[in-house]
Amino acid sequence: MRTGGASKRHSSQRTAFTMLIAATIIAVLPALAIVIQIIISGADAISLELLTEAPSQAGKAGGILPAIVGTFYLMLGTIIVALPMGVMAGIYLTEYARDNWFTRSINLAIVNLAGVPSIVYGLFGLGIFVLLFHFGMSLLSASLTLACQALAMTVTTSREAILAVPKEYREGSLAVGATKWQTIRHLVLPQALPGIITGAVLAMSRAAGETAPILVVGAAFLLPGLPQSPFDQFMALPYHLYTVAAHVPGMPKSTMWGVALVLLVVVLSFNVLATIIRVRARQRRHSS
Amino acid sequence: MLRQRVDDATAGASLERRLRRRWRLREKLIESWVFLAGILTIVILLGIIALLLREGLPAFSYTPPWEFFFGTKWYPVSEPPTFGITSFFVATLWVTLVATAISVPIGVACAAYLAEVAPAKVRETVKPIIEILAGIPSVVMGFIGLMLLSPLVQSAFDLNTGLCGLSAGIMLSLMSLPIIISVSEDALRAVPDDFREASYALGATKWETIRHVCIPGALSGITAAVMLGVGRAIGETMTVLMVAGGALAVPISPTNPMMPMTAAIASGIGNAVRGGLQYQALFAIGLILFVLTLAVNLIADRVLERQKRKFAR
Amino acid sequence: MVMLALALVLTACGGSPSTSIKIIGSNTVTPLSSVWAEEFMSQNPQVSISVSGPGSGVGIAALIDGTTDICQASRVIKQSEIDQAETNGVDPHEIQVASDGLSVVVHPSNPVSELTIAQLSAIYTDQITNWEEVGGNDAPIVALSRDTNSGTHVFFKEHVVQMLGLPTEEKSLEYGPSVLFLPSTQEGIDEVAQNPNAIFYPGLGYVTEEVKPVAIKRTASDPGVLPSAETVLDGTYPISRPLLYYTDGEPTGVIKSFIDYCLSSEGQEKVSDVGHVPLG
User: How much is the ipTM here?
Assistant: First the structure.
């Protein structure tokens, strides 16, 4: 009877574990399937021409260079604004802020900002940057909009990275007479740098993939050249994918898949970069 | 001690005083910069609220709130235009429901596997793949849903069209999965080993331990994970725009083509004249969306705080 | 912070150089405008032209705001918009640059080959819901449309759903609640190509072998006409619309040169390449 009960419990454990594994497989399979599908369908369209030339014939021919460049400018613009702000805000929250209602409301604001839908950020960007500030439908408006969205992420990752620096480091530094800022600048920040950079790279990856905000703030369909100033219009990969999959008659399907592939590669390579930084930093910390 | 040394080393107390004053000034300056950066998040959040209110509230003077929320007629380009968002709201509920119903069981089960059962090697292989899923841009997901999923759904369920809430919900569940898995896994790992040891000591199997000790112990974290996944599903735009079908009828089943609130905004913002009635109505929808996701994320945050405090040592 | 301040200062010095042209507006006209822009820029390297969507409404708004040189539109400007323009000191000047036939397409396996405008209207207002009622199989009709971002949505509503110009004209009709509003024409074509019960109204340029155009009868006693460049030009095809450029006042300078190019025989040749119908 004892053994009967035990084996029954063991067999139900086996069943349960099988279901858990099945769930994991279901979770994992789509990611692989999607990536593989895009690679297979899009690989034909990838050529040097696609990557280095401007679109021609309304996007049916030529390349997507302006969209690639536009995406990189967007990522750059986003991070130039969101990273310093995020790091400084993270510093404030960890080093200077006292535990009062004010600080709690800042933390609350961060949580909320992280959850705002991207289309609402688009509306915000439209109302404030495009219209109120008169920046128009430009790289500047789009970058600022995406930066607002990225801010929650950069603040959070910076805060976590700075918090992870052991208290002893700070105390040691203050003990030899350094000021608070000197401690932060020369000791804490360098230690926290890998975590901060990881957050920045992830934020850039997110900015590269966002469509809804730039749909509202206004990416262009065709531009004669690359943007020369932040006030110029821009093209971007996600918007280009949406447009070629949608608004051009007779667009060859392989081109659509090709653009999807390029976008995927850009976004995922940043994710991989972030992971590498994070893993290497952890290894270094363990070895030291 | 340091001060004495500085005293000895510098010629004259005035130099020392000047140095320290400069340092203090610098500190103060930096402190104020950092403080400004700190409140930036609040400023932006308030800015979003202010803008949504400013552009969206006027919509309610044209359409009384009752009619706006419970009306089913959305004809923004007619003369006169009518605005009623019941269909959009119900559509958002449907796709969120489908997405949650799929992603929660699978996500929590997968998290349980990764946290409790999987060997380290498997974990290390699976986690990056899940992160890849998290990184796929929404427009690509929408594209895949359109090209691959919707024909499948149409034939599998014998529907008029595969562009429906079900297809959108399935794609959304894929997008919520990574966050549900990640946060649930963290929650499970936060359950102290002592609990597990105690359970084994009483003779329980691993599965019984997971089921009766780990998961209940991580419940608040798992709830938070679910809420974050829900928030993600509510706020997603491109995928539902391309896959959910875009019909105006109030959807009575997930297999109906429907238009969630996010898609409703995206579908009209390209045409809306700035400051016009349609523009105001779209901002009003944005306001409602904002409030909805705010509520969900606040709950998630509250629950996560409680989880952290529960197991803080 | 510093960057923002700098940017704000720079805004004061806004304004575009005279050798650049901005075209904003309808997604329908975007492919045509970009083909024209590309050719014009290769012939006139000192000019730069940018083309953007996302909709006729936004283009008209940009014209009223003064933030675009040319507004491309797939629908006619409304009186309320003209009034708004005039209060802003803008005088919208309309130039037709091409025509576009709206082809009504169904799945190739669908036996229905002709429809009257009245039947189309009934289909799109949910009054006819089964293909049987118009001579087809016993199957539900899946009516696809463009969403409100599109000038095409408005045009189809006025000219087909509301039957503008016909004795049966009915201004109060709206699209029915089960009509699907899609964000793009391509999506509609893809759906019709794989759904035997779907019906959609893409521009001529989108029609491929994967879908079957239906002949349209203006009234039950007229002959059914299939859409083509010829039938749009000679007016026998009932559902065609002008593609328009709007400028502030009569075009001058480089804008005039560009539009002259678009209207020239060389420019008009490009119209058929993109799938629209050149001016007669």
Answer: 0.83
* Residue found under tokens 């010095």: C13
Reported as a single tens digit per residue, the pLDDT across A200-239 is 888 888 888 888 888 777 777 777 667 777 777 788 888 8
How do the domains of chain C map onto residue ranges? Answer: 20-100+241-274, 103-238
Q: What percent of chain C has pLDDT over 70?
A: 94
User: Residue C133 — very low, low, confident or very high, per pLDDT cuts 50/70/90?
Assistant: very high
Please check whether residues B86 and B14 belong to one and the same domain.
no
Rounded to the nearest 5°, which phi and psi values hold at C146?
Answer: -90, 160
The two most distant CA atoms of chain A are separated, in Å, by 82
**A36 touches B: beta carbon within 8 Å:** no
B36 and B167 share one domain: no
Domain housing B274? 67-311
Domain C103-238: what homologous superfamily?
Periplasmic binding protein-like II (3.40.190.10)
Confidence category of residue C7, pLDDT binned at 50, 70, 90: very low
Q: Is C5 on the interface with A (CB under 8 A)?
A: no
Residues B136 and B18 in one domain: no
Give the closest of A85, A116, A271 to B40, CB-based.
A85
Query: How much is the average pLDDT of C133-147?
Result: 90
In total, how many domains does chain B have? 2
Residues of chain C positioned with their CB less than 8 A from the CB of A234: none
Q: Which residues from B are below 8 Å from C71, CB to CB?
A: none
B25-37 confidence digits (pLDDT tens) = 888 888 888 888 8
Taking CB atoms and an 8 Å cut-off, how many pairs form between chains A and B?
Answer: 245
Taking domain C20-100+241-274, whether its CATH number is 3.10.120.10 is answered by: no
In terms of Cα–Cα distance, which of B289, B176, B300 is closest to B239? B176
Count CA atoms closer than 13 A to C156's CA, side-chain side: 27
Out of B117, B130, B235, name the one closest to residue A27 (CB): B130
Interface probe for B, chosen from A120, A128, A176 (most Cβ of B below 10 Å), is A120
Contacts of A82 (CB under 8 A, 6+ apart): A146, A147, A148, A150, A151, A153, A154, A200, A203
